[in-house]
Design a protein that fits this description.
It contains 11 helices and 18 strands. α2 packs across α5 and α3 crosses α5. It is about 35% helix and about 25% strand. A hairpin with a 5-residue loop joins β1 and β2. The strands form 5 sheets. It has a 6-stranded mixed β-sheet with strand order 1-2-6-3-7-16, with helices on both faces. By secondary structure, it is an alpha+beta fold. It has 2 domains: about 280 residues, Aminopeptidase (3-Layer(aba) Sandwich); about 120 residues, Alpha-Beta Plaits (2-Layer Sandwich), CATH 3.30.70. It is elongated, with a radius of gyration of 24 Å. The structure holds zinc ion.
Length: about 425
C-alpha cells in the first residue's frame, strides 16, 4: 500500500506525541539513545557472537536474562518454550505492551559467528537479523531505567524463540495461545528500515514433501520409477505457477535433498515448499493449485514406467508450518503511535507493508501489532555474508522508545493510547 494514500494520523495521537517530545525527560532520553549508539552496537555484537541456532536458543536466552537483570528488572523469566520475558511495571492500572525481538537465527550450530568490522560495516551471520532488534529493546529499557521514565502501562520485553523458518513462530504462538500472559499490544523490532511500517501479517503454509519408491541400480533396474525424477517433475510444474499479484502471493521450493549415489535410482528424496500470501483466501487458493500438481507429477512418473503398488513412488505431504496472517485497520493504536513517533523523529514513512514476523500471531488474535525497523542498514540476511551498517542506527531505538511510550503512556504527561483488552 502506498503510504501517501493513508489518512493523516489522528489528532489526539499527534498531540500526545508532541506533548511527550516537549517533555524534558523525554528529550533527555532521546538524546541518551543517540549518545549510547556505541553501547547499543556493542550489545548487538556481543549477542551475535552467542550462537542461537534454530531450536537451540538457550545459551543466548541465558545471556539475555542476565542483561535484563543487570538493567534492573526483577520480574525476568524464561517460559517453557524458551522465550525470555522481562517486565517493567507501570503504575499498575495500565495496559501491557510487548516489545519483542527474536533470539533465533537461521544458522545451524557451529556456524562461525565472530563479528568482523570493515570500514565501519559489521559482518557476521545474524548481526542484523535479529541481534539488532534485541540490542534495540535492551537500549529502550536502559534509557527508561536511566532516565527513570514512569509509565502508566507495563512494558513486557520479550525475546522470542523460533521466529525463523521451521521455528514457525513457536515463541509467539506459545505467548499468545498457551502462556496465559495478558497482552494489549505488540511491537516486534525486526529488520532495520525505520521508514518501513508493517500493518498486516503475511500468512504462510509450508510442507515437507517426501517421495518414496523402490529404488534400484541405475543399469540393472532401469525402468523403475524414481523418487528424484518424480520430484523433478513436481518442481517443474510448480515453477510454472503464476500466483495472484495483489494481494502479493508467492511460493518457493526452498530445499531439496535425497538420493544416495550417482548410479542409483533414488528410493527417497524430499523437498520443502513455502507458500505465502498477504491474503488468507489467496493463500488457500495457491495451496489448492500446487498440491494437486505434486500429486499429478508423481502419478506421471509412475505411469511413465507402468509402476504400480510396491513399485510405485509414493507421496507424503507433511505440513511443517502454518503461520496465520491477517490485516488491521490503519486506525489501530500501535500503527497510529508508530506513525506519530516517526513524525516527531523526522522519519519519512516510505513503506507501509505486510510481512511474516512474530507480529502475525498477535494480529491473528486481534491484538494491535506491528514490526518496526531497528535502524541502520543491512544486507545478505539469512546468508553467512550478512552485514550491518550502524549509520543513523540510533533512530531505530528512538522510534521503538517513543512508540512504546505513546502506547503505555507516561505518568503525569500522557494517557496510554493502547486500550486494555478484556
Ligand atoms: Zn528476523
Amino acid at each position: 500500500m502506498d503510504p501517501k494514500e493513508l489518512a493523516p494520523v489522528l489528532a489526539n495521537v499527534t498531540q500526545a506525541a508532541a506533548k511527550l517530545t516537549a517533555c524534558a525527560d523525554v528529550k533527555d532520553a532521546l538524546a541518551a539513545i543517540r549518545r549510547d549508539e556505541k553501547l547499543t552496537l556493542a550489545d548487538q555484537i556481543a549477542i551475535t557472537e552467542i550462537e542461537a541456532p534454530p531450536f537451540h536458543e538457550e545459551t543466548r536466552g541465558k545471556d539475555l536474562v542476565r542483561r535484563f537483570k543487570e538493567l534492573g528488572l526483577v520480574d525476568v523469566r524464561v517460559d517453557s518454550e524458551g522465550n525470555v520475558l522481562a517486565r517493567r511495571p507501570g503504575s499498575g492500572s495500565g495496559p501491557v505492551l510487548v516489545l519483542a525481538a527474536h533470539q533465533d537465527t537461521v544458522f545451524p550450530a557451529g556456524t562461525d559467528v565472530k563479528v568482523r568490522e570493515e570500514n565501519g560495516v559489521y559482518h557476521a551471520p545474524g548481526i542484523s537479523d535479529d541481534a539488532r532488534g534485541l540490542a534495540v529493546i535492551l537500549q529502550v529499557l536502559r534509557t527508561m531505567q536511566e532516565k527513570n521514565i514512569q509509565t502508566v502501562g507495563d512494558v513486557l520485553f520479550v525475546c522470542t524463540v523460533g521466529e525463523e523458518g521451521n521455528g514457525d513462530l513457536r515463541g509467539s504462538k506459545y505467548l499468545f495461545f498457551k502462556s496465559g500472559v495478558h497482552v494489549d499490544g505488540f511491537i516486534s523490532v525486526d529488520g532495520v528500515d525505520v521508514g518501513r511500517l508493517l500493518y498486516a501479517a503475511t500468512g504462510s503454509k509450508r510442507y515437507r514433501v517426501h517421495f518414496d519408491g523402490p529404488g534400484g541400480h541405475s543399469w540393472k533396474n532401469f525402468g523403475t520409477a524414481s523418487a528424484i525424477h518424480a520430484m523433478g517433475r513436481a518442481i517443474a510444474k510448480i515453477a510454472d505457477v503464476r500466483p495472484c499479484e495483489d494481494p502479493k502471493t508467492t511460493f518457493t521450493c526452498g530445499t531439496i535433498k535425497g538420493g544416495t549415489t550417482v548410479n542409483s535410482i533414488a528410493a527417497h528424496c524430499e523437498m520443502e515448499l513455502d507458500m505465502r500470501s498477504a491474503g488468507a483466501k489467496e493463500l488457500d487458493a495457491l495451496e489448492e493449485e500446487i498440491l494437486p500438481l505434486i500429486k499429478q507429477a508423481c502419478a506421471e512418473e509412475n505411469a511413465c514406467w507402468g509402476a504400480e503398488g510396491d513399485n510405485a513412488v509414493k507421496l507424503t505431504l507433511e505440513p511443517i508450518g502454518h503461520r496465520p496472517g491477517g490485516q488491521q485497520s490503519g486506525e489501530v493504536s500501535v500503527l497510529q503511535a508508530a506513525r506519530a513517533a516517526m513524525g516527531e523523529l523526522g522519519i519519512e514513512l516510505k513503506k507501509y507493508d505486510a510481512a511474516s514476523t512474530d507480529h502475525n500471531i498477535a494480529i491473528y488474535c486481534g491484538v494491535p501489532a506491528t514490526t518496526l525497523g531497528g535502524g541502520g542498514a543491512e544486507g545478505f540476511n539469512h546468508n553467512v555474508k550478512e552485514w550491518y551498517d550502524p549509520k543513523d542506527g540510533y533512530l531505530g531505538a528512538q522510534l521503538a522508545f517513543l512508540t512504546s511510550l505513546l502506547l503505555v503512556g507516561m505518568q503525569g504527561v500522557t494517557e496510554p493510547l493502547l486500550e486494555k483488552r478484556p
